[in-house]
Design a protein that fits this description.
Layout (H helix, E strand, L loop, with lengths): L3 E2 L10 H7 L15 H21 L6 E4 L2 H15 L6 E5 L4 H12 L3 E5 L9 H7 L4 E5 L13 H10 L3 E5 L11 H4 L3 E5 L10 E5 L14 H4 L7 H39 L3 E3 L10 E6 L4 H10 L2 E2 L15 H5 L4 H4 L2 E5 L6 H20 L18
Parallel strand pairs: 1-11, 3-4, 3-5, 5-6, 6-7
Antiparallel strand pairs: 2-8, 7-8, 9-10, 10-12
């Protein structure tokens, strides 16, 4: 049985080059970067070289990048930090209904602390209305936080335009760019964002390492207190090996960015074309124009997505029904619901995400298995085009 991993949006394997860069820092270069002697200096030099690589990937200055434990911590720090920093001005925050739960749950926490949050809707392609954003800004608005690219259905949002609107009204702008990093070109100066969250394990670095870009001149209150690490902005002994891996992965991502985007996009389109050619009643969720290169989120009508996922797992194919952070929840995807999909379409949706180790042979195997499995599941499904649960369903081929 062939094994095919198609959940790169959830996490990526650590590349061999990244692991090779990390290994010495587990053993020979094990020093604490805060120590004032040789091994400590050696570890500190490695951390700063990695910081440079990560900063260069997003067009930032080295001193504007602060390492965190993950993207979630970076999101928390951005939102809670601005909330504390700007509370004298107001307590109104704007975000979207399709954000990662790292944003949504932090907003829920802030609402319990007396903050008010406006959640922007999206259209059927997962895009926000810039007019709605501008109309939502009030004199007491302190932050706009809009994700760069959605983790479930891959929509790339108009971050530069949204940041310009926020700044026109003297409001800070944050973006969660965890999914966008290494999948689209990013230049924080051109985008003119104030804060940006990123993570290592989406770009072939290890889990447990992320970063927050904080524009020069913006001083957020610390989320963690303790030592003087990260220029006294984020306490705690640095995850040196993770940072080293993040730095190497960032360097490789920058060197291969154009090829990666072109190659992954070609594989994505090849996969979509073959699935729709061989399986009826299949539709891609979201638009194709502004979409992450490796994201394929599809509805398979008349079957339940979890059942299809389970059958594919038994055939060595590893995919997702949505965000990995929501696994185990039976609630329908908040992202697809925000796009206007009814529950039966949401529960029939699966996310395939393609990465650097995916091949056309892998995709051919997945399509073969999909065709057989969908046919099997539909053969004993009680639902069909006429069933009232589905209403009048168009046939997609």
């Amino acid at each position: 049985m062939r094994e095919v991993y198609m959940d790169y949006s959830a996490t990526t394997p650590v590349k061999a080059e990244v692991m090779a860069e990390m290994l010495p820092y587990f053993t020979m270069k094990f020093g604490n970067p805060s120590s004032l002697y040789g091994p400590g200096f050696e570890a500190r030099d490695g951390v700063e070289a990695a910081r440079h690589n990560v900063a260069h990937l997003i067009g930032a200055a080295d001193k504007e990048v602060y390492f965190t434990s993950c993207g979630t911590e970076a999101d928390d720090w951005a939102l809670k930090g601005v909330a504390e920093l700007k509370k004298a001005k107001g307590k109104h925050i704007i975000t979207t209904k399709i954000e990662h739960h790292a944003i949504l749950h932090t907003c829920e926490y802030l609402e319990k602390q007396g903050y008010e949050v406006t959640y922007l809707g999206v259209d059927a392609e997962g895009q926000i209305s810039l007019e709605e954003l501008e109309n939502a800004i009030r004199p007491d608005t302190i932050l706009v936080s809009i994700m760069f690219a959605n983790n479930e259905m891959g929509a790339i949002l108009p971050i530069k335009e949204a940041a310009a609107i926020a700044h026109k009204h003297d409001v800070l702008f944050h973006t969660d760019a965890v999914q966008a990093l290494s999948n689209v070109p990013i230049d924080v100066k051109d985008l003119d964002v104030d804060l940006m969250s990123i993570s290592g394990h989406k770009i072939y670095a290890p889990k447990g390492i992320g970063a927050l870009y904080i524009r020069k001149g913006l001083v957020l209150p610390n989320l963690l207190h303790g030592g003087a690490q990260e220029s006294k902005r984020r306490a705690g002994t640095e995850n040196v090996t993770g940072i080293i891996g993040f730095g190497k992965a960032a360097q490789m991502a920058e060197e291969n960015l154009d090829y990666h985007i072109k190659h992954i996009t070609e594989l994505r389109d090849y996969f979509i074309e073959n699935v729709q050619k061989r399986i009826s009643n299949v539709r891609v969720n979201g638009g194709m124009e502004h979409r992450l290169p490796g994201n394929v989120n599809m509805i398979f009508d008349f079957i339940e997505g979890e059942a299809l996922l389970g059958y594919l797992d038994m055939q060595g194919i590893y995919i997702s029904t949505g965000s990995a952070c929501s696994s185990g929840s039976f609630a329908p995807s908040h992202v697809l619901a925000a796009m206007g999909l009814p529950p039966e379409k949401i529960y029939s949706s699966l996310r395939f995400s393609i990465g650097d180790f995916t091949t056309k042979a892998d995709l051919d195997y997945v399509v073969d298995c999909l065709e057989r499995t969908v046919q099997t599941l539909r053969s004993f499904s009680p639902f069909n085009e006429e069933h009232p649960m589905f209403g009048t369903t168009q046939v997609h081929k």
